[in-house]
Write a structure and sequence with these properties.
Blueprint lengths: L1 H11 L1 H7 L5 H8 L3 H4 L1 H24 L2 H19 L4 H29 L2 H15 L1 H16 L3 H20 L12 H12 L2 H11 L2 H18 L4 H25 L5 H21 L6 H27 L5 H23 L6 H23 L9
């Protein structure tokens, strides 16, 4: 089903495209609108907050009505909001429209993950997730480069025109695809909430979701703070920043590649633990070393990104293996927890810290400690994944 795989890639790439393509424009918007970084970063935080909230809506709706109809509604909202962002005349209009954009874009990620459970099983699914992670990692590598080029040749508004075009391509594709899950025939509001009740009572699912989602704290804090650190602190141009950001994002792509290469010889659980350790080690390096230039941020953050890329495919698959029904709700809740913690990381790094690089390092130390500690304490409660 190669056509489905391509569609899953297009849908799952919505979050990095919607944020990372916009990053090179943030310092310029600070100057244009005369706003501090914290206010401009509300356009990022607002996107992810709405995104998180509506993940919880699309998941159970797709379990009842199928994947296709909620996905089409979300994509339509995303396209309209993206065009509105392109026409925004103030930071406050931008914040509001980014909220709407996040509400629409949430359908793409939540339902792309649910569709992998509809279409693939067992080891095939974890390998597909790893392949997806490899391809999707190209999005945060290429998005800032595209955004930087748009800033050179046009202006920031065209970034959102491109995002609207991406949404339109996906909308047309979904219109032509068959349904992957028929949905249930009936169910009211209480039935829609039953899925979340069952998931919240599932210790293995919730525990693993919370532990692995702690990685969102340093990952999304880096997204929100990287342009300020690289451009304003280290004096890089927007184009140089895009290159460093792409270097950091390369770790997200190489991690799943390494997973696929090693998964025949090592268990998914062992590779997942190794990823947790990389996040912890990269955080210790970043927090302990003095940051006097851009490489002092880029190199340890690459290790953190590599660890995240290595552990996310088996961790997501292991979490989904803990549920027998409510795949849409489980996928939505898994991404919701990750994104909500990520939004908190964005808010923290936007505060007036003396040394934001060390703050990023300590966030990674905390995330690595939580995830590795949870896994070492409770791994015996999880059935081994096939390999």
């Amino acid at each position: 089903m190669p056509h489905f795989f391509v569609l899953l890639v297009l849908l799952a790439a919505f979050p990095p495209l919607s944020t990372d393509m916009y990053l090179p424009a943030i310092p310029a918007l600070q100057r244009i609108w005369g706003c501090p970084l914290l206010v401009v970063n509300l356009t990022l935080i607002g996107f992810f907050s709405a995104y998180c909230l509506f993940l919880l809506v699309y998941g159970p709706l797709s379990d009842r009505f199928g994947r296709r109809r909620p996905l089409l509604v979300g994509l339509a909202v995303y396209i309209v909001a993206s065009l509105g962002c392109a026409a925004a005349g103030s930071v406050y209009w931008m914040i509001g429209l980014r909220l709407l954009q996040g509400a629409g874009g949430a359908a793409a990620s939540a339902l792309s993950l649910a569709m992998t459970k509809d279409l693939y099983d067992g080891l095939q699914r974890v390998r597909i997730m790893a392949h997806l992670a490899v391809v999707i990692a190209l999005a945060p590598m290429l998005a800032p480069l595209i955004g930087g080029a748009v800033m050179v040749w046009f202006n920031w508004r065209w970034i959102f025109v491109l995002l609207a075009g991406w949404g339109l391509v996906c909308f047309i594709w979904v219109c032509r695809m068959p349904e992957t899950f028929a949905g249930t025939a009936a169910g009211g509001k209480a039935v829609l909430l039953d899925g979340y009740r069952r998931l919240l009572q599932n210790f293995r699912f919730i525990g693993l979701a919370l532990a692995t989602s702690s990685f969102a704290l340093p990952a999304f804090a880096f997204i929100a703070g990287s342009s300020d650190i690289y451009i304003n602190r280290f004096g890089l141009t927007p184009q140089q920043f895009s290159g460093f950001f792409a270097f950091n994002a390369a770790g997200l792509m190489i991690g799943p590649l390494v997973f696929n290469r090693l998964s025949d010889n090592f268990s998914p659980e062992a590779l997942m633990a190794a990823g947790f350790g990389c996040v912890l080690g990269g955080g210790v390096w970043m927090a302990a070393a003095p940051a006097t230039g851009p490489w002092h941020l880029a190199l340890p953050n690459w290790v953190i990104a590599f660890g995240l890329g290595l552990c996310r495919p088996p961790a997501n698959n292991l979490a989904l293996e803990q549920v027998d029904q409510d795949a849409g709700a489980a996928s939505a809740l898994l991404i919701f927890i990750f994104m909500l913690i990520g939004a908190g990381g964005m808010g923290l790094i936007s505060m007036n810290w003396h040394d934001k690089v060390k703050v990023l390092g300590w966030m990674a130390v905390a995330a690595g400690t939580i995830s590795l500690g949870f896994w070492l304490s409770f791994k015996n409660r999880f059935a081994p994944l096939p390999h």
